[in-house]
Write a structure and sequence with these properties.
The chain is an alpha+beta fold. It has a single domain, classed as Metal Binding Protein, Guanine Nucleotide Exchange Factor, Chain A (Beta Complex), CATH 2.170.150.70. The chain has 6 helices and 10 strands. The strands form 2 sheets. It has a 7-stranded mixed beta sheet with strand order 6-7-8-9-4-3-10. It is globular. The termini are far apart. The model has no long low-confidence stretch (mean pLDDT 92). The structure holds zinc ion (ZN) (2 copies). The site of one zinc ion has 9 residues, from loops.
Amino acid sequence: MRGPPQVFETPIALRCACGEMRAEVAVRRPSDANRNVCCCAGCQRYARALGRADEILDEHGGTDVFQVSPRSLVFTAGRANLACMQQTPKGALRWYAGCCNTPLAITLQSPRVPFIGINHRCVVAEDRAGFLTTRVGAIRATVNGKFDPSLAKTLKARPIDLLRMLRHIGWLMLVWAVRGDQRHSPFFDAATHKPVLEPPERVAFARAAAERQSSRLALGCG
Ligand SMILES: [Zn+2]
Ligand SMILES: [Zn+2]
């Protein structure tokens, strides 16, 4: 028989490697979060760009990440160290501690999609994986991996697990959207809906887009 659902009153503590930046995530029940492992090339490139691939990626190149409501994260120290990276024009915003290049969270570019994905590396715990299993539940699915056929069977999420994971995060995001949690995201300005920091790469993306546009105009001058 299942006991009553576990409720945690204390938030999950986050801290960058040097300790300058600290934050807390309020997740009362494991079912209030969605944990998975992302093996996409973007997450791998990001881990390498921060110079912490060995601490962030597992042996198969996966990043352990859990999605929570945008209003659940609050900074408790060193917020001024927050930095943001965007690897591709349509890519996610990757928020990290600029003091020591520790990954913190990922969001989409639009504040309307109400979730933030917390990177396991900033979670304060001796045994991070075990702690996360207690607090935000087991890994629901390993996604976006291109595995060797011999590994795929054990690593790749079964369609049923993927479906269950998508149903879970879909339900959570609906609840967060209806509650208006995205208006309380620490990563977006509530009034302007813009990210609180402009990723430096955006200037180059905009320049490249403008150049493409002008060459199109020059070619199609008829
Ligand atoms: Zn730091
Ligand atoms: Zn990824």
